[in-house]
């Protein structure tokens, strides 16, 4: 990727510090120098894209230019007629071919530009050939789930042969006019390389194209689709231009680096692009990825008020309404997009979500299939159709949809996660582990991925790895609130009751404000059994009472309450028996009927005579320390327990004190 280092660079580094990650937030004022340079650049780039039929980039640049319509320029902008002058004798050929191109008659456009020698004519010829091949391939698709590779590669190989010959001449003799290859032809060559899965070469060629023309947003998007991780992004040789920030924000969003993307978009809005509908939609998608649903819905509502006929990103908006189960709003959105354009992929996706929320999964699949006929590379339709097939228990079709989604974009964590769930239904935990790992790599701080990964480890009897996953899921912020429950169940299954009890009590503390659920009933049931085994009857009684609040654990709670009552009654009965036997043996020693006992087995007679005034020092010590008396008695009578003796000592002391009071009153 070092070939483009010596290429002339039309970009500028004046605006490199716009919204740099990590910089302090600037006050919300417009940067007029930045806005004037942006407007001047965008006006020229929009004309060039329109001349070449790059309609999506033309629309994107026009929307950006509309945000700075009030900015006044100090100098005049070059007219588009200067580009027409370069065509010379090919001007009539160009106008004829461009009219066919605008009407999507790509073969006729390619035929009438076959002999063109200018860069504009050659680009229109090759680009129309590429679009013609794509159109024919899409028209041959009967069933989106059935891949048809009949036409794949035929037109791409021809284009690759012709463009690679031009590229080799360009690299060997870059100063020659015959071998010169402009930024637009380099972009087309990069697209062909990407479609042929020649990723490394495609990245290199696209970087060269961006150095020659940094305002081509389509080239930035093609390059962003090839970035696999942050390390790869940091190694790219990108032009120092304000468009670079938009590219970085878009790529960060694709890599699920939402905080970095939001910081860049916020900086651009503060610089003067606050009314850009594109940036507003990207900020809403960022909040969607961060599960900040209310903020994302509010931004989409604001977008609707600014541009009520805008259909871009409404598939994401419909997902938000689906998650919040806002049936009325989703129904209103579906009717609105149908009135705007019923043959847009976003419209089909919105209607599919509407039917899915109504549990009409067959109709939802029909609309997702319609979206894929319009655009086979529409990622959202593949993923959502996989979800619908999961609801319909059609696991084979769901697997195929998720695999197609991964082929479109390997960074789509929803497709990896869906594959893991599908194989979990099929009871193939080894496959689940692989796919959940891929999803967790894309979303390292998503507790749902970690919990799913921990469950797969648990099924494979890898308990230590499962414990780590559950603990991390709880530490990063448990979205579903089940990580502690899964970890406690794992400890319980391993026979580590103490750790399980601690985790269950922690789970009860964290879900105290939540609504009553059956999980809490199961927790109460476990804690009741645990403390019942440890003979801690008071705690067991409290948890058993709470078990009766839940339908699932009500009967078991009543059973354990009866068990606790029986144990308490048995303990009280044993206590009374022990106390009574000690008192009887002290007041009326039993007479042996089986022969004389040895002196060591007989209890000596107790002297219970009370002498309140005539006490010796030894008697005072004995009175102050009843445990000495107990110790001496226990040597000769092992059946005497400490509790029974202490209770007897208190009763006797009360009796003697009362006797002293009575005698004093009598005297």
In short:
This protein is mainly α and about 675 residues long.
Q: Could you please describe the fold and organization of this structure?
A:
This protein is mostly helical. Among the domains are: 66 residues, no CATH class; 71 residues; 46 residues. It has 33 helices and no strands. The N terminus and C terminus are likely disordered.
Report the sheet with the most strands, covering strand number, pairing sense and barrel closure.
Answer: none
Low-pLDDT residue spans:
1-27, 582-625, 627-633, 650-667
Helix content: 55-70%
Q: Work out the helix count.
A: 33
What is the percentage of strand-forming residues?
A: under 5%
Mean pLDDT: 81
| Helix and strand composition category | mainly alpha
Radius of gyration equals 40 Å
Compute the number of strand runs: 0
Tell me the span between the first and last alpha carbons: 117 Å
Which shape, going by the Cα principal axes?
A: elongated
């Amino acid at each position: 990727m070092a070939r483009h280092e010596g290429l002339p660079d039309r970009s500028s580094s004046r605006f490199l510090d716009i919204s740099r990650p990590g910089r302090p937030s600037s006050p919300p004022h417009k940067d007029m120098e930045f806005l004037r340079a942006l407007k001047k650049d965008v006006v020229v780039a929009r004309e060039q894209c329109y001349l070449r039929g790059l309609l999506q980039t033309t629309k994107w640049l026009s929307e950006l230019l509309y945000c700075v319509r009030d900015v006044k320029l100090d100098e005049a902008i070059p007219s588009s007629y200067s580009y027409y002058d370069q065509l010379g004798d090919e001007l009539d050929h160009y106008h004829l071919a461009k009219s066919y191109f605008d009407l999507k008659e790509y073969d006729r456009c390619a035929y009438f530009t076959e002999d063109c020698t200018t860069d504009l004519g050659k680009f229109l010829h090759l680009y129309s050939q590429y679009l013609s091949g794509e159109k024919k391939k899409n028209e041959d698709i009967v069933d989106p789930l059935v891949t048809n590779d009949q036409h794949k590669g035929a037109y791409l190989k021809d284009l690759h042969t012709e463009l690679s010959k031009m590229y080799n001449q360009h690299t060997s003799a870059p100063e020659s006019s015959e071998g010169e290859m402009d930024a637009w032809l380099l972009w087309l060559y990069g697209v062909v390389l990407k479609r042929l899965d020649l990723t490394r070469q495609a990245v290199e060629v696209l970087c060269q194209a961006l150095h020659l023309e940094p305002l081509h947003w389509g080239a930035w998007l093609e390059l962003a689709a090839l970035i696999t991780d942050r390390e790869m992004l940091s190694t790219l040789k990108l032009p120092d231009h304000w468009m670079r920030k938009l590219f970085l924000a878009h790529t960060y969003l694709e890599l699920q680096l939402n905080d970095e993307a939001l910081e860049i978009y916020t900086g651009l809005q503060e610089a003067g692009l606050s009314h850009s509908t594109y940036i507003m939609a990207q900020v809403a998608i960022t909040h969607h990825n961060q599960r900040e649903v209310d903020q994302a819905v509010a931004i989409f509502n604001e977008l609707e008020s600014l541009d009520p006929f805008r259909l871009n990103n409404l598939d994401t908006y419909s997902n938000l309404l689906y998650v919040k189960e806002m049936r009325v709003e989703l129904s209103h959105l579906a009717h609105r997009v149908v009135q705007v354009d019923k043959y847009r992929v976003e419209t089909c996706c919105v209607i599919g979500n509407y039917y899915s929320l109504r549990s009409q999964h067959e109709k939802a699949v029909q609309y997702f299939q319609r979206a894929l006929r319009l655009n086979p590379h529409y990622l959202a339709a593949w993923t959502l159709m996989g979800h619908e097939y999961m609801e319909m228990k059609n696991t084979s079709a769901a697997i195929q949809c998720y695999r197609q989604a991964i082929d479109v974009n390997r960074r789509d964590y929803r497709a990896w996660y869906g594959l893991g769930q599908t194989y979990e239904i099929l009871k193939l935990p080894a496959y689940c582990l692989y796919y959940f790992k891929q999803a967790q790599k894309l979303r390292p701080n998503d507790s749902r991925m970690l919990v799913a990964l921990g469950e797969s480890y648990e099924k494979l009897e890898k308990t230590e790895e499962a414990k780590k996953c559950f603990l991390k899921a709880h530490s990063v912020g448990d979205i579903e609130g089940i990580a502690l429950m899964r970890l406690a169940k794992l400890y319980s299954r391993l026979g580590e009751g103490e750790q399980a009890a601690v985790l269950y009590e922690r789970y009860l503390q964290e879900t105290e404000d939540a609504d009553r659920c059956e999980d809490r009933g199961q927790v109460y049931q476990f804690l009741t059994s645990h403390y019942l085994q440890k003979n801690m009857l008071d705690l067991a009684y409290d948890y058993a009472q709470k078990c009766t609040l839940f339908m699932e654990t009500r009967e078991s709670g009543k059973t354990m309450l009866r068990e606790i009552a029986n144990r308490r009654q048995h303990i009280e009965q044993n206590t009374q028996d022990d106390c009574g036997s000690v008192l009887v043996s002290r007041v009326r020693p039993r007479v042996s009927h089986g022969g004389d006992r040895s002196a060591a087995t007989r209890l000596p007679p107790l002297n219970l005579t009370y002498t309140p005034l005539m006490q010796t020092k030894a008697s005072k010590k004995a009175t102050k320390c009843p445990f000495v008396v107990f110790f001496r008695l226990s040597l000769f009578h092992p059946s005497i327990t400490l509790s029974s003796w202490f209770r007897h000592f208190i009763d006797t002391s009360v009796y003697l004190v009362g006797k002293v009071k009575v005698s004093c009153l009598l005297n």
